[in-house]
Amino acid sequence: MRKVLKLFTVYAKLYLKMVIQHKLGIVFFTLGKLARFLFLFFMIYLVFSKTNLVKGYSFNQMIIFYLTFNVVDTTAQLLFREVYRFRPQVVSGSFDLILLKPHHPFLRILVGGVDFLDLILLIPYILILIYFIIQLPNISLLLIAGYLLLVANSLIIATAFHIAVLALAILTTEVDHAIMVYRDLTSLGRFPMEIYREPIRAVFTFVIPVGIMMSFPPKALLNLLSPASYLLSLFASSLLLTLSLKLWNLALKKYQSWGG
Amino acid sequence: MKKYLAVLTVSFKEYFVYRINFILWRFRVVLNIIIPLFLWSAVLDRNPVIGDYDRTQFVSYLIYGNLIGTFVFGTRTFDISSDINDGKIINTLLKPVSFFNCHFAKLINLFFAVFELYLIVWFFKLQLIPPNNPILFLPIFLNSVLISYFINLTLSFLGFWTTEVWPIRFVFMVLLSFVAGNYFPLDIIPQPIYKLIMVTPFPYMFYLPAKILISHENPLLPTTSGYAGQSIGQLILFSYIWLFASYFLARLVWRKGIKSFSFWGR
User: Fold this and answer.
1) Residue B126: phi, psi to the nearest 5?
2) Could B174 and A25 be called an inter-chain contact, meaning their C-beta atoms sit closer than 8 Å?
3) What 3-state class would DSSP assign to B54?
4) Does the beta carbon of B98 lie under 8 angstroms from any beta carbon of chain A?
5) Distance between CA A49 and CA B52 in Å, rounded?
């Protein structure tokens, strides 16, 4: 475990050095992400300037949904940025060099590129989220514990999705933006699932569990989640992680090297 | 013209080489309209009128706007900066075609967008108002596509001086997504912000053509009030100013860039 942590730190440091080479990129990407966050925040404000409640949710509650999405999404990007660069490695054959290394390939291709740029934004997101959580009436430690458990659970689902994207990159070279499809799908979770009509709501809650991932944690915080939903959430994450690992193993068996 | 038709055909075939990729790309386009459509529908369930818009007008604005958006956002100019950086642009420069026209011919997204948006309208039984003011709409729509095309070209030509074009384009895309009016009609926001946005090129790529299509009244009549206090003439004038400004800027950056461009081994 110590060796794994040491390697993780080494890869993170190397990635940081690489990022620092692109100073213009740091400024513009941070500005762009900040602008996107503020624009959507403004849109929620605009929505609530026209009505008091949206599908039963108040402004503060809607903001908590939006901020929870941002925290989960940004944490996933922070940890799994390297997934975005995986497919070219398969196509060019440089994935062979990673497989030859005496450690698990995930250490390089899944968490080998910690994106510190996302950390710049993650910290203010968390602080604003805490501010809005404190404003909630009837908040308790139990609800906060449930919320944190489900946020952690969402990160497990995000991990499963990223592993599946890695596997897809090996199984089919046709798909070059599977990760962007994942991003677009999860972006539906910026707002409560109740705003979507059936069958979209059911599909994005149970088939592609965006609702479980992004909507269940804030619902737990608002005391709107039944104990059965907690269990469903934990079951879904375990199932998805297992399936994604099986898919990865299958992909590795199918992988044909370019032969160096 | 025949040459550019050939470019169009080739880029059409390119899309179908990787079919799953193509289907997923179109799926992403559908996903992007779902969020604003349902968010505002949820608001309209409680509040039947937002600004000057009832449900049908609001939904029509989003659907028509997204159809216009597929042209505006559908440029293939993204590849140009990387082509400059790795020297591939030389292949295009050696061909007997205009660089500006050649890339413009690659705009083909509309065929798919019509089908996808029809599917959304049919599936969710959305009510739309029939498109209005077609004669006024067509030149403004053409302006919107050209303004977007020239600005995107200018951004790509930055590749002559830097390899970091993508971060600059990212900021542009974020601004375009929100300030152009993709998520809601711009005239429902507070007046000072609206007026500030109307000075930028963004609303002329999306908001203005979509707004013209859903306006019940004839926008050319002096009594028209549906443009948040601004006359349609003023907005059309701004649209043309941005068209010429973006064209001359793209030409200027191209001329400067191509003079400073050099590459080896080709």
Assistant:
1) -80, 145
2) no
3) strand
4) no
5) 15
With CA atoms as reference, the chain A residue closest to B37 would be A196
- A174 vs B40: which has the higher pLDDT: B40
Mutation choice for B interface testing from A39, A121, A210 by most B CBs within 10 A: A39
DSSP, collapsed to helix, strand or coil, labels residue A24 as helix
Q: Are B62 and B33 in contact (CB under 8 A)?
A: yes
Q: How confident is the model at residue A249 (pLDDT cuts 50, 70, 90)?
A: very high
CB count in 10 Å sphere of residue B30: 15
Contact call for B28 and A31, based on CB within 8 A: no
Query: Smallest Cβ distance to B164: which of A24, A180, A200?
Result: A24
pLDDT of res. A94: 87
Average pLDDT per consecutive 10 residues, chain B (266 residues; last block may be shorter)? 75 72 78 86 87 90 88 74 78 78 64 77 85 90 91 90 86 89 91 92 93 76 57 87 95 90 70
Q: Which residue of B has its CA nearest to A198?
A: B124
pTM of the model: 0.86
Shortest Cα–Cα distance, A102 to chain B (Å): 34
Residue B147's H or E segment, with its range, is helix B134-157
User: How many Cβ pairs closer than 8 A exist between chain A and B?
Assistant: 105
**Which of A80, A248, A65 lies closest to A155 in space, CA to CA?**
A80
Residue B63 contacts residue B117 (beta carbons within 8 Å): yes
Task: Note the pLDDT of residue B227.
Answer: 58
Residue A200 is nearest to which of B34, B46, B189, comparing CB atoms?
Answer: B34
Q: Which residues of B touch A35 (CB under 8 A)?
A: 171, 174-175, 178
Strand partners, B54: B49
DSSP state, residue A58: -
CA distance to A131, A136, A171, A251, per residue, from A145 (Å)? 17, 15, 39, 37
Q: Is B182 exposed, middle or buried (CB count within 10 Å of its CB: 0-12, 13-18, 19+)?
A: buried
**For the segment A54-100, what is each residue's pLDDT rounded down to a tens digit?**
888 999 999 999 999 999 999 999 999 999 888 888 888 888 888 98
Residue to substitute from B16, B40, B169, B194, interface A, most A β-carbons within 10 A: B40
pLDDT in tens, B17-58: 777 777 777 787 788 888 888 888 888 888 888 888 999 999
Q: pLDDT tens, A212-231?
A: 999 999 999 999 999 999 99
Structure tokens given for A241? 């992680």
- Compute the Cα dihedral for A244, A246, A247, A251 and give only its sign: positive
Q: Please report, for residues A33, A36, A130, A254, B54, the alpha-carbon distance to residue B178 in angstroms, rounded to integers and kept in the order given.
A: 12, 8, 27, 43, 21
